[in-house]
Protein 1
Amino acid sequence: MAAVCGYNVSVMTGCSPAINGKQVKADVRDHLFISYAWEDQVFAKWLALRLTAEGYKVWIDQMKLLGGESWPSDIDEAIKGRTFRMLGLLSRHSINKDNPKKERTLALGIAKQPGRKGFLIPINVDGLPPTDLDWLTSDLTFIPFSQSWAQGLQQLLKLLDREGCPRGDVDEGRSIAARIAASSELIREEPESLVSNMCRFTSVPAMMHAYRVQPKLEYGSNALRDARRDWGFHPLSPHRVLAFHPPPADLGTWLRVERAQSYRWAELDEIEGVLPHTAVSRTLRGVIEAELARRGFTWSGAAEGYVVPGAHGKMVRVTLPSGKTTNVKLSGERTFFRVGQPKQLYHYRTAVKVFIEHADDGYRAVFRLQYDLTEPSGESLPPTQRNSRRKHLTRGWRNYEWMVRHLAVIQLITGESGTLSSGTGPQDTVAFNCEPIVFTAGVSIDEENVKAAPELSDEEADATPADDDDDHDFEDADDGGEADDES
């Protein structure tokens, strides 16, 4: 008798298994069986833990989960007699591998038996197109996880509930999943500082003003675009905007502005039909976007963000939270190829999209990195190529690489002062600090034990020469040594 995650489990040949000392019938179908390829193990383990946390009994090799053996000795019998549904993870890795194919074939055979319809639940892990599916699964409706794991999980949970999948105690399942996650060799019982992509506004004026403007600032017009380059505001209509302060004098050469009304926004339920926090958030975003334009960032519709200025391939110096510095390249070129196709050179430039978040301690700016991907001629890549090129560009980046690039962009916005301010005086000035918000986690990840992620597919490879210094996009500024791993 062995204890498995709090359950006493025994498997005896010719006998029914005993769980928690109670005999159960051998044909009780109460497990979910996850069929996957090794290359998809990160997603498979995540899915297993999430399902366990919802109270489901899960079979997946390498892990001992809620109410089930670590791995059945007779897989075929376990699938036939103890499995309620098989979750077949479909990906470029699993579609042609022998074991996943055998398991899916068995599941489809079971699905033809009376009362076993829908036994196989196909899950599309990486956006595998229907044309690449084998003939056995091409007619099935799969649950997509390639765009959002969270949305895919919600669809799967709804399906399992609708199908009446047996489910145990949720609180116990969550406790078990938490213990399994915490026992991972990747987790250390030491606190860790987490540098975020958020910065605080240190000053937000108490008063917001409505201004009448001439000429009209119509949506999509050059006038609206030009006004937003110099002034942070939220348009209510072509003739009326909300702002914390009047526009700079330079804008007054062509835009006539008259204050119409003032509001103490924190005391109101709405401001001219707009929720106060919405008005404040949109105006604060306008302040930052005006500063982006002033510093030479340009909007890219293809990247859905503001593209960093500067010469192509130029290194940017970054100050880390430790006070040390490093250099990072925010633009450059890469070579992409698929087997049997010619190599394709593409250019990339880092872009940023700004969001405003309201929290208990005030307003925060959230910076999300985007990428402007073009042909060497400068022409935007077609939408069908952008996603694969972005994955190609960023697939080797971990927390440190992303952190440094976020810091580089934020510091480009604020300049050497590290602050941003907009206003005419102390009462109407918006102020922003480039120092990122740092959180502390109770446990930390042992980076030395993190295995390198598998390649995206056998058909995609990075053709960038490893020894070509001109094509490196990350190096240290301190005497050419390795950058300090501060994250």
Protein 2
Amino acid sequence: MNPDQAPTRRLKKFPIAFFAMIMGLAGLTIGWEKAPPWSCRSTTGCSP
């Protein structure tokens, strides 16, 4: 592999990696927002 081919090959897969990173962060954010507060995880329950 020539040194001038490496950036082109890496840049070719950049959009897929960027899309996966954004979708992963979006899923984490949605899960974080829907999770109950830490104080509600006891067995006594929690009122919203």
Protein 3
Amino acid sequence: MATIDLDLAARLMMVVRDGLQVQWLLDPTLEMPPAYGDFFQHYFGRFTEVGWSGS
């Protein structure tokens, strides 16, 4: 069963969010929610595939 390092996951989420904010400052047409959703699905999606429900 896959496990998740919650401290690492939290840091990655903040880094990705901050990076997307910088990209948005450079290009205001960037759609941040879909971009963040893509990261979230790719990173956490592998856990849902093996049964991690997040609860």
Protein 4
Amino acid sequence: MIRQEIPDTAPAPIPTIRDNYRFHLFLLTGQPLTLSRVVREQIVNQEWPEDVRVTVDVDAVNML
């Protein structure tokens, strides 16, 4: 079991770019490698619409 914290939600710093909507989800954990693996596995196993792009960024430096 992964111990994690999901802080309050907030809009992306730039919520839309050229009519594309952007969302950020922040997950805080003491086990970043395990959480990253689980999140990536869940994303890969999802069927996303063609016009949806999902990115996982661990220890993001530039949030824009």
